[in-house]
Amino acid sequence: MNILIVDDEKLAVEVIKNMIQWESYGIEEVYTAYSMKQAVEAMERHQISILLCDIEMPKGSGLEVAAWIQEQKLDIKIIFLTSHAVFQYASQAIKYGVSDYLLKPVVPEELEQAIQLASEKIQLHKQIEQNEKYASYWNSGKTIMQQDFWKSYLSGGKEYKNLQSMSKKIDIDAEPGTVYYPILLYWSRKKNRGTVWDDEIIEFSIRNIVSEVLFGKMQNGNFVLLRNNCILAVYPMQKETRLWMREKCKMMLDRCGEYLSFCNISCYVTGDTPFEKLKEAVDMLIETEEEDILKENRVIMAQQDKEVFQYKKPDMEPWVNGLFDKSQVKVLKEIQKYLEEVGVVYHADSKALGQFQHDFLQELYIVLERKGIYAHSVLSSPQMLESFNRASRSIADMVNWVSDLSDSLVQYDYKKEKTPDMIKEIKVFIEENSGEEISRNDLAAKVFLHPDYLSRIFKEQMGMSLSDFIIQVRIDKAKVLLQKTDDRISDISAKVGYPNTAYFTKLFKRATGMTPKEFRKA
Prior knowledge:
It holds the Pfam family HTH_18. GO terms for molecular function: DNA-binding transcription factor activity; sequence-specific DNA binding. It is a single chain. It contains 23 helices and eleven strands. Helix content is 56%, strand content 11%. It is extended. The protein has helices spanning 10-17, 36-45, 62-72, 87-95, 108-133, 141-155, 160-169, 199-214, 242-259, 278-291, 317-322, 328-344, 350-370, 376-379, 382-390, 395-417, 419-432, 440-446, 451-462, 466-484, 489-495, 501-512, 516-521; strands spanning 2-6, 29-33, 50-54, 77-82, 100-103, 179-189, 223-227, 230-236, 263-269, 273-274, 299-301. Helix 8 packs across helix 9 (242-259), helix 12 (328-344) runs antiparallel to helix 16 (395-417) and helix 15 (382-390) packs antiparallel against helix 16 (395-417). Strands 6, 7, 8, 9, 10 and 11 form a six-stranded mixed sheet that branches. By secondary structure, the protein is of the alpha/beta class.
């Protein structure tokens, strides 16, 4: 792999070039450029894998370089450098699929982490290309029939006699007493660990690893995709002991951790199971997986009799308030510590996580109402809705939800800091739509603020209320129409948003000391 460092400041390029041991990350050559033109020339001459580029450059910005890479359809991982944490830069960086976004001056540890992540993405992409060569294996007729057999049996869709007849044709032993070892694997992506792999490639890789450890070769017919992120492996037992199989499962997780470091993978087992009781055992595995809130790379033995955890609401008020007073990192650590304690020590389940989430939301609503913030302005984005729906699946998902909530509140504060811009936006909207019906609620919704809060900040900024400003704009527009047109006063009244001419005349006289007719004559 080769890297290209681009910055219009030559000293900055030299500092970064000598900052870390590039060869430790598989970097063979380090190229440099001091403008967009030089960067483009370097990428045309050399095979560049990673671009480390400043955003603010006078002769073509880093964003323009990223756009050029996208247009050329080059497979280059981009890491942006900038001196300013500008939200617009971050949003455009996401648009161009940028691998990372670092603030100057760059800290060696942050740069190393970014290079490591970019390097992993490149290696993963190479593995994808290799895996795709073998993807056609899934179209094997026998494999599909074996998978259909297991799906039918586990869903209770076919009678036992029909299944036995079917099993003999596809090399599955369905005789009573035949021992199987069902293994349920659940995987999820780690937060902030990007990967170019889609779900199908990840599932293919997990099956590949499990097959290699259990069967010594690809054995796709013994796998069933129960739902997204949840795979069942049905292993025909011979003389292996339960302890030996658990060691095999640990080996599978270690191998998955090596090749799929961007995922958490958990393994759920029950032990030796006769074929006729396999459905019952799999149902117990599914229940165990759904109740497990840790989901952190471990082997879990399903149990029929489990102690029920009695959930008690913790003191959440300091956590919720902390999300508003710049203590987000501390809050996330405390919540994670609490959840891990109830998960590990007290064996809390997904039901307890759901109760925790509802209580947390209740506390949040109280604070939002006190601050005059509509809940939908911070909770209704697609990312927040997806995060909310996943939160009770695991501790990691719950912490991710609180983290996403924290980010949403930060973005809301960012918008609030742009109050002058929002007031300008409101003024322009009123001026352009003065002839239409304008309500305070409509204006507040436009900038995602509570109507009371918008009214307060508008008066602070403008020295007059929203309603008075709307009247002023309409009266000013009416003055122009009265002076420059021969339109009837009733028509002018309607054009400036007052269908009732008498009411318009009353407001006009209050503002100017004259009726519209007197104003026109004057």
